[in-house]
Amino acid sequence: MxxxxxxxxxxxxxxxxxxxxxxxxxRVDLTPMVDLGFLLITFFMFTTTMAQPKTMEINMPxxxxxxxxxxxxxxxxxAMTILLSxxxxxxxxxxxGDDPANPPxxxxxxxxxxxxxxxxxxxxxKRVNDLKASGQLTATDNATFLIKPAANSTYEDMVGILxxxxxxxxxxxxxxxxxxxDLEFIQQTEAANQE
Amino acid sequence: MPKLKLPRKxxxxxxxxxxxxxxxxxxFFMLATKFRPDEPVVVKTPASISEIPLPENDVMLLTVDPNxxxxxxxxxxxMRQDLINRVDEYKGLGLNDKEKYNFAIGSSIGVxxxxxxxxxxxxxxxxxxxxxxxxxxxxxxxxxxxxxxxxTWIVNARNANPKLRICIKADASTPYPDIRKIISTxxxxxIFRFNLITNLKETPKGTPAYExxxxxxxxx
Lengths: 195, 220
Hints:
A: alpha/beta, 5-stranded mixed sheet, 4 helices, B: 8 helices, 44% helix
């Protein structure tokens, strides 16, 4: 394949004394170099990663027995409880579900771009802002989301809902343990819908 | 009839252009990428819009696979050496220098303490095979250092390097209770701030986060 210079070795045509520079071909066979190049490309493609992994920062609620429970209590009208359940299903209800006489109405939503849990969160924030404007809530109150993942939810759900909080600029949210009462709410809702 | 003579064409192709392309691509890959760190298990992380990059160093990585097995690792060989000395002393594992060295140059740990000595004794090629079968670091929701071995690792690692950032890299399909165990363990150590490793997802249009980013980039 390599082109060898075969023109050399001939007789001097121009008589003695006239030196003629030997004409070497400047063409080099680049095939092995291309092979090498692609080999290295393959190597780099397999052993390296393109993007630096991204991370999401999360602050868990500070757990301390000394914190006064009353001052940190969430106002029911500003709160929304979100329950993560099986099959990426999200149940939500208004308030914190602490009134046994008046059980909350559970609604279901999914992680969708349209009419999913995102819309629910946006509506809630809007409602709280309206309440603030009308003076029923003070300016320091914020829409508060209590996220309670059930045992049959996955990590993806948790990241998904935290992501929705970031997407909607919900400032106040917390991941808390699900209560037996909340599990009961889910069961009742599922039973009502015959599943 | 005269014989039809097809002109014989040379089979030589000029490789210069191809060579140029190959080396251009090679340069691109060399500059734009980074060597992939050793991963004990294949983990498919969920996506989020968060754009905070993973810190370059001082990272403690807790990898969780879909079955809830936990693998623990920190970067920096010197820190690892320090860590294994501390753990060895704390738990009385009786590791020799070779086993400690194996830990320092190894990647992640996914075995309980009672198997650690025999695991670190393995030659490197067997160790990576053993890691696939590893049961994971035992973890529970208590802060008890005897049963919750992850807590032991975390405490000792933070003593070895107080600047450690804690990152959790979990598979999207990991059940929540397994994640809860790790978060509880961290909370017991009074660690309330940590990072979750996610893939980047496009910020949906028309949302507050999108507006914020869009207006920010407009101003710049």
